[in-house]
Amino acid sequence: MTTLAPVETVPAAELVENALERAEHAEPTRTDAELLLHARGDQLDRLLSVAGRLRDRGLQTAGRPGVITYSRKVFIPLTHLCQDRCHYCIFVQSPGKLQKAGKAPYLEAHEILDIARQGAALGCKEALFTLGDRPENRWPVAREWLDAHGYESTLDYVAAMSLLVLQETGLLPHLNPGVMTFAELQRLKPAAPSMGMMLETTATRLWSEKGGAHYGSPDKDPAVRLRVIEEAGQLQIPFTTGVLFGIGESYAERVDALIALRASSARWGHVQEVIVQNFRAKESTAMMQTGDLDTEEYAAAVAVARLVLGPDARLQVPPNLTDATELSLLVRAGIDDWGGVSPLTPDHVNPERPWPEISELARLTAASGYTLRERLTAHPHFVRAGTPWINETVLPAVLALADEQGLALEGMRPVGGGAAVPVGGSELAGRAKLAGRELGLRPTESSASHPSTAPSPMAAVLARAEANPTGLSDGEYAVLLGATGDELEALAQLADGLRREAHGETLSFVVNRNIDSSLVRERARATATGGGLGLTDIDELVAEAVALGASEICMQGPVYPELGAHGYEDLARRVTAGRAGLHLHAFRPAEIADGAARAGLSLDDFVAALVDAGVGSVPGTGARILDDDIRATLSGGPGRDLTVARYLDVVTAAHRGGLRSTATMVYGHIETAAQLVGHLRTLARLHDETGGFTEFIAMPFVPASAPDAPPHLAARGPNTRKTRAVHAVSRLMLAGRIDHIQAAWTKLSPAERDAVLRGGADDLGGVLLDGTLNPAAGPEAGLELSRDEVERVGTALGRSVWQRTTLYGRAVAGAGVA
């Protein structure tokens, strides 16, 4: 049979080399990722180094540098029957073959428990349920067995056996039942901490065309499988998925599959690990003559997966599908997880490939410079987050086996009822109890039989935040950023209480106008077709803004070079000349750095020149996330934005010179919770040193505002849940320091604006007068609030509205505002 495998055209070595150079500094484009799949020899070595460094950065961020994980499991093959006909599979059997082997269509409950109990005795913590897809749709014998045993479907039997294993043995079920509907996913969530389904490929032709590896398999339609992965995200199910390479897909299709998984994970945050599996030909299958995926080709694919998925993805390879002598190659390629390994049961999907001994796997991992650690079925960040990611039905059993990092308590074995005991000795038991007391997460002996009384990790952190909102650890604030449901409401209420304590039931705003200083040209007046602003235009726009009641001109944008070495100062004087009551809020840190360089002045001397020219404060925009890798990615590469150190130097110089500034953050792109917390910590430290920040503004990422960012970020942006959590956590972390939190209404929907104002924000910012002379003179033209609109927002919130100055003095309320 043919596998429809295309003949790959090997690109010129120079093209691969160029792609490697770009990959060392930024996430690869789709084209570069495809080129990198061709890396071999020295180029492969270099690719592996890039991928390995990226993995190491992600592990550092996750708080477990140098750690590669695995799950100690038992493999429970619930049924070998399936409605699909994958042309490489030997797991699936026909009813006739099962009968000849003396096997029933399904494992009976006592057989399942026997496997689970043996595994628990050996310290296993995962029960991996593997089965064929909906066998009752194809095989009458499957339907008859289910009817005889009182189950409506195979998935109903999966749910029942999963709960039975959990209750009787304490093993944590991980479910791989294939394609499920939204309702079926919802029904199975209370039965297991995690689920999974391989995407395998997005190559529809391998499913739809005769000769394809998935031809004749109804549940292998890539669109159907992507739908399942999406719906698992909507239901907040920790989900394992992955790709199978070597079944006839092209290199371009490999990249497409990885990008599809990355996009789903970015939308929902539910993909806990991505498996990159290499094809291994099996005897007595239609694809037995298809060669195994070449080792170097596989290593390149794993490394490219790391580059595409990013540092924070958990990347898994099965250790039994690669020869032990070559596992170090995969470590170099950027993996951080070996998946499930069993000391008891074989890999029923690949029975010809035995698992390595766990001690041997630890030795091989150590030889590559990493430490092997045991994890649970759900990955650590989901364990720490608790509900709603992990249903309260199964959460106590999970917590009984988890350490303070959310990894497995090694040396412990489950015993059922949400409890665990040491495999040997009492030291580990003492450590488990100590961890439980420190976190306040696990049920005590007296409460183990009442799972609903065990607080979730999120609830425990919320309780500590209520007692000491500014005193949590970075990790605890990161946990709060994942709040959902009732716990998000509790977080928002806590943040809003802090707002109320600081400001009462008030809502502030400033009347201002934006002017884009990058549009200004030297000529007296810009022509109608020139697309710029002349100096006379500036005079008229400022005069109009003052007449309309503005107390502030906000001016941002790099000044055009033809305005000369002192263009920034000259423009500032033009705005403020003769207007004693007008405040000029002007020039971002990048522009201050540019102006100092043009004028040949130190930062301190240039700030003094700006103050002398009439600048009253500076916008702190351009902060993005205070992480150099993120800044380089969002700006199109290294050197195209200020480094974090330089940004902070400029802001510090501005504060030192008497110019206060806003503090900002752009979120919802590629940042992690830890990086968000780190950004806020940095702002707090700087404010402690200078006292220079007037307010904090969290701005959601809008792709159109980052034209130099990689194309794959075009669909990024935070959802409402994240927006609310970011504002609430910001209020907690900055309370007593930066006491004003602004709702960036121009970048939020009205519902989101109101939600953050009810969850910690106290200020609406500027009304952004457009005027009539040239509404397009500001970068946010067409976005304007009237006094009546501000009042309506305040009334809906139950707050009195007051008009402020830029520096939060009280302005003349409503003067001249339309």
Question: How would you characterize this protein structure?
Answer:
- This protein is of the alpha/beta class.
- The protein is 41% helix and 14% strand.
- The protein has 30 helices and 21 strands.
- Strands 1, 2, 3, 4, 5, 6, 7, 8 and 9 form a nine-stranded parallel beta sheet that branches.
- The termini are far apart.
- 52% of the residues are buried.
Radius of gyration: 30 Å
Apparent shape: elongated
The pLDDT mean sits at 88
Distance between the termini: 75 Å
Tell me which oligomeric state these chains represent.
single chain
Would you count the extended β strands for me? 21
The major beta sheet can be summarized as: 9 strands, parallel
What's the short story on this structure?
The protein is of the alpha/beta class. Helix content is 41%, strand content 14%. The chain is elongated.
Labels describing this entry:
818 residues; alpha/beta; 9-stranded parallel β-sheet; 7-stranded parallel β-sheet; elongated; disordered C terminus
